[in-house]
Amino acid sequence: MHGLTGAEAARRAEAALERFGAAAHARTPMAELSKGTSQKVAVAQALLAAPELLVLDEAWTGLDASARTELDRAVAERTAAGATVVFVDHDPGRLAGLPDAHHRLDGGTLTEVSGAREASVRIHATGPPGAEPPPGLDGAPAPGGGLLLTVPASRSDAALRALLTSRPPWHVRAVEELP
After folding, report:
1. Gyration radius from the chain CA atoms
2. How far is CA 6 from CA 19, 25, 60, 68, 129, in A?
3. What is the bridge-based pairing of β-strands 84-88 and 53-57?
4. Is the pTM of this model over 0.85?
5. How far apart are CA 46 and CA 63, in angstroms?
6. What's the rounded Cα separation, in Å, for the pair 64 and 57?
7. 64-77 confidence digits (pLDDT tens)
8. In 3D, which of 55, 44, 56, 61 has the Cα closest to residue 1?
């Protein structure tokens, strides 16, 4: 599968099913799974080969809160790794701040939703001793310890989510909007 050896594909599949809370159903035929569990398996399959282009159509539908959080994290990881993620969702707040482009389909017409020049946000965070920042988050050493990250305001939610849900989590000491 996408150049993976059988052993590597099996290892990744097991890890992805575990990540989304579907490991107990690894040997269950898809036809016997609930909608939510089927969706977890589909998401795990889509992420298996760490694709450079990930297309998600209503992927959060049917997922429980834990799996939705994991999918949010997986999307942030893929984009931090340089991949392109295209997703369709009826929830306009889905992954707020993460998209580079936002389009709306209205009456059969696709239009780009644009905004004014964007402000930046400075985040002061402290990680566990020796911990590296989550992938895609680079910063400068903060006076008194920790890390200072400056991100576009539209990406601040994703940066905070990445810090707070990393394993082990980082402590956010301050968030400041910059002019």
Report:
1. 18
2. 20, 19, 28, 28, 37
3. parallel
4. no
5. 15
6. 17
7. 988 988 898 888 88
8. 44
